[in-house]
Amino acid sequence: MRILVIDTGSSSVKFSVYDIPAGTECFASEIERATSIEDALALVPAALVKADMQSFDAVGHRVAHGGERFVQATKIDDAVIAGIEACSSLAPLHNPPALAGIAMTRKAWGNLPQVVVFDTAFHHAMPARAITYAVPEAWRQASVRRYGFHGPSHQYIMERVADELGTAATQLRIVSCHLGNGASVCAIDRGQSVDTSMGLTALEGLVMGTRSGDIDPGLFGYLNRTLGLSIADIEAALYRKSGLAGLSGIGNDVRDIEAQAAQGNKDAALALDVFCYRIRKYIGAYAAAMGGLDVLAFTGGIGEHSANVRSRVCTGFEYLGLLFDEEHNAKVKLSGFEAPQLQQVASRVKVLVTQTREQWMIARQTYALLKKE
């Protein structure tokens, strides 16, 4: 079965064609920096025709937020679309573009089955102690709780680690670090996501490219009283003007920030310090939550490519039995989906780095759902 996968961002569209169950990627492309997401999506059918990839059997979509309703891959119909729209207030930057992608593919290939895979689904069985905010019951009744994101990536890392180590995921305590412009850490305890750094929205947790991560919620009232900022003003700044970009003053690209830090830029150096410190705090917390740690895994653009960040994050975890190998780390040059290990021989904790395969996971889950019919 050939499956077209659509991953729609705020101004870009990633799209691929996979042959499943063979697992072969037949085609992959991305349309970036379009005037609007609608303009980007309008280019997809022609790009597929040009690549002679217009023949496929189903379409799989990535949607960030499924709320409490969607806990697994789901076949798209009008009711499902309405459900995704209802979740858009929880992911205002992510769900609307995904809905635009669904609208485009239903118009272009309305005769094909279409499936949506949710970022939140992998985390749906997290225990109550991990998902519950200490807020009034009326808020909790209104679905205010922690959900988590990057589910396809964290699930893939769990499976890839287990395969690389020749050990069942049900025998491993894994901390998966997806570090990119969006970043999250996930505690995977013997095959189950038991906690993750993102929460109700994709704003909670780690410092990210332009997102703040964890803040004191009292900040909203304080900035309103002192600077006259509205909730919308503050929320927009926390999503788009904070994180590495807000700290460094030079943008959100870690490569640029590392280069400036090496040249003595104090703001860039602070940005890296805060970024890595937050990751280390979550790793320590999740090791405590799981009663130990067997594997620490890195993925995402920063996790895959920044030896500096991996070194900063891993140094100082000797008390957990993690002995990091700086020489191995410095030599990592990923060319495919290999998963090199970065720990010393005597280390009890394994450290791996690998490319994530979110679109492949979407294709695989789409195939699995349709095969049941």
Kindly describe this structure.
The structure is a single chain. The protein has 2 domains: 2-118, Nucleotidyltransferase, domain 5 (2-Layer Sandwich), CATH 3.30.420.40; 153-358, Nucleotidyltransferase, domain 5. The mean pLDDT is 96. The chain starts with a strand and ends with a helix. It has 373 residues and is of the alpha/beta class. It has helices spanning 37-42, 44-50, 78-86, 95-108, 128-131, 137-141, 151-165, 218-227, 231-240, 243-248, 254-262, 266-290, 300-305, 307-314, 326-330, 358-371, and strands at 2-8, 13-19, 24-31, 58-63, 74-75, 114-118, 173-179, 183-189, 192-196, 295-299, 350-353. The protein is built from 16 helices and 11 strands. It is globular, with a radius of gyration of 21 Å.
Short description:
The protein is an alpha/beta fold. It contains 16 helices and 11 strands.
Strand-helix topology:
Blueprint: E1 2-8, E2 13-19, E3 24-31, H1 37-42, H2 44-50, E4 58-63, E5 74-75, H3 78-86, H4 95-108, E6 114-118, H5 128-131, H6 137-141, H7 151-165, E7 173-179, E8 183-189, E9 192-196, H8 218-227, H9 231-240, H10 243-248, H11 254-262, H12 266-290, E10 295-299, H13 300-305, H14 307-314, H15 326-330, E11 350-353, H16 358-371
Parallel strand pairs: 1-4, 4-6, 7-10, 10-11
Antiparallel strand pairs: 1-2, 2-3, 5-6, 7-8, 8-9
